[in-house]
Each structure stands twice: as structure tokens, then as C-alpha cells.
Design a protein that fits this description.
169 residues, mainly alpha, 7 helices, 44% helix
């Protein structure tokens, strides 16, 4: 017998699962990175985020994948772990203030310097490539870590700055 569970209940379940994973993995990630006090963790660079990462949220990847923003806009995602600011009417990018808020939200989902422990990179990655299975209802945006957009996001997590980016802007 197939039951018809309301979409809101299913969505709430996925948001709850993602939040639980965030709470479970954050202490592990903190412990992994707290090692020697001599080791300096990279700083997340706002300009790199704004110019290289944020555009990925608006990019149409393929016919079978929605843009990240479609599902993760604040109005639709309702305060989930990755709730992006609503674009101003008719705008194709965020205001400076909105970009800074997006930066703060997304920064909470990464372990600076370690893409492998960052939910921001693990959630949209296919399970066979190391992604978190059955937790990203938007589908697997990245088939592998070799995807250029995934690499760009990983560069940000590793602390690259716009000027130090190995690829042209």
C-alpha cells in the first residue's frame, strides 16, 4: 500500500536529518581540527565566496538539476541549515548586505581547510563519490569531486583568496 505523505512532512524530515547530521559531525570536525595550536586554520575569504562561490548557487547545472537557489532560498527552505537570502525583485545577484549574510550562513557548514569534513561540500555530492547518502533531497549536484564547481567551493573552504585562485575569474 502506498501512502501519500504530505510534502511538508517529508521536507521537514530532510531538514531535521540535515540538522542532526550537522550537530553530530560538527564536534567530530572540531576535534579533528583542534590538533596542534601551532597549526593555523585557513580563513574563509569573503571576496572569493562572493565572486566565485555565490554564482554557483544561481547556475543552472542541467535539465535534471534545479539551481541550488531554487530550493535553498530562505522563503522556500524556511530556516534550514542552508537558507540563502531572497534575491531582490528582478535582480540576478544579491546585494552586498545579502551576500555577507549568505557568507555567514554557508560558513557555518564548513570546516575551514578541510573539504572532506564540510557538510556544504558533502551534501550535494553523489554518495559513490563520498557524499552523504539519502540526505540531500535536491539530488546530487556533483557526480564527483572533479566537477569544476565543486572544486571552486573546495578552494574556498581551503582558504583561497581571489588573487590566489589557480583558475581565471
Amino acid at each position: 500500500m502506498i501512502s501519500r505523505i504530505p510534502v511538508r512532512i517529508i521536507s521537514a524530515g530532510f531538514v531535521l536529518t540535515a540538522t542532526v547530521l550537522l550537530c553530530v559531525l560538527t564536534p567530530f570536525a572540531t576535534a579533528q581540527n583542534s590538533g596542534s595550536p601551532d597549526v593555523q586554520k585557513p580563513q574563509l575569504n569573503y571576496e572569493f565566496f562572493k565572486t566565485r562561490v555565490e554564482p554557483i548557487f544561481l547556475k543552472k547545472r542541467s535539465d535534471d538539476h534545479a539551481r541550488c537557489y531554487v530550493c535553498h532560498q530562505m522563503m522556500r527552505h524556511g530556516g534550514g541549515p542552508l537558507s540563502l537570502e531572497m534575491l531582490p525583485p528582478g535582480a540576478s545577484s544579491w546585494t552586498e548586505e545579502q551576500s555577507r549574510r549568505n557568507f555567514e550562513v554557508v560558513s557555518k557548514l564548513v570546516v575551514p581547510g578541510d573539504p572532506s569534513l564540510s557538510l556544504f561540500l558533502r551534501m550535494p555530492l553523489a554518495p559513490e563519490a563520498g557524499g552523504l547518502a539519502d540526505t540531500h533531497q535536491g539530488g546530487w549536484q556533483f557526480a564527483s569531486e572533479e566537477d569544476p564547481d565543486w572544486q571552486t567551493m573546495a578552494e574556498w573552504v581551503r582558504g583561497l583568496k581571489v588573487a590566489s585562485s589557480p583558475r581565471p575569474l
